[in-house]
């Protein structure tokens, strides 16, 4: 099995959409390997989103992702799981995300786009290491 990192963001937990979101991944045939609700501290949020440091939305992004619990997950599938998950998530801007995707069906604002998924095999390894260092 091939694993990726996936996160239900604070808006997903606050809106009670975690079950709906995980259900979509499970119905697709993906497996939940581990999952934990936690409130991210600022250092972890900044490390996770380091590639966006310096962009105009970085401060807003860090305060959003740390404002309440997220569900951090390891999700596994037969191959290229990061890409399968990204397709299921839809475009970053929910207003432009296709119907049938998580963001396209359940969100509308870019700053409240419900989910995170690693964007490459390398990012999946890095992010799983950041959030589940004991494994
Ligand atoms: P991704 O989540 O689809 O990988 P990225 O470009 O990596 O998208 O951006 C990371 C996160 O930063 C997005 O999911 C979104 O929460 C936030 N973000 C990206 N662009 C904007 C923006 O223009 N305004 C506010 N938040 C943004
Ligand atoms: Mg990204």
Descriptive report:
It contains seven helices and four strands, in the order βααβααβααβα. The protein has helices at 10-14, 18-28, 42-48, 58-65, 81-89, 102-106, 121-131, and strands spanning 2-8, 31-38, 70-77, 115-117. It has a four-stranded antiparallel β-sheet with strand order 2-3-1-4. It is globular, with a radius of gyration of 14 Å. The model has no long low-confidence stretch (mean pLDDT 98). The structure holds inosine-5'-diphosphate and magnesium ion. Inosine-5'-diphosphate is lined by residues 52, 57, 60-61, 92, 110-111, 113, 116, 119.
Query: Segments where pLDDT lies below 50 for 5+ residues?
Result: none
By secondary-structure content and strand pairing, the structural class works out as alpha+beta
Number of helices, counting only DSSP H or I runs of 4 residues or more: 7
| Radius of gyration, in angstroms, nearest whole number | 14 Å
- Strand tally, please? 4
Give the overall shape.
globular
One letter per element, helices H and strands E, the order comes to: EHHEHHEHHEH
Question: Which range does the strand content fall in?
Answer: 15-25%
Can you summarize this structure?
The protein is an alpha+beta fold.
Please describe the structure with a list of short key phrases separated by commas or semicolons.
135 residues, alpha+beta, 4-stranded antiparallel β-sheet, 7 helices, globular, binds inosine-5'-diphosphate, binds magnesium ion
């Amino acid at each position: 099995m091939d694993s990726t990192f996936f996160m239900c963001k604070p808006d997903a937990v606050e809106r009670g959409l975690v079950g709906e979101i995980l259900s979509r991944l499970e119905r697709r045939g993906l497996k939940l390997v581990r999952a934990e609700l936690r409130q991210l501290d600022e250092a972890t949020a900044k490390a996770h989103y380091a590639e966006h440091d310096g962009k105009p939305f970085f401060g807003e992004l860090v305060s959003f992702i740390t404002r309440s619990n997220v569900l951090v997950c390891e999700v596994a599938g037969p191959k290229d799981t990061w890409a399968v998950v990204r397709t299921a998530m839809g475009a970053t801007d929910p207003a432009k995300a296709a119907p049938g995707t998580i963001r396209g069906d359940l969100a509308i604002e870019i700053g409240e786009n419900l989910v995170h998924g690693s964007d490459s095999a390398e990012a999946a390894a890095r992010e799983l290491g950041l959030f589940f260092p004991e494994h």
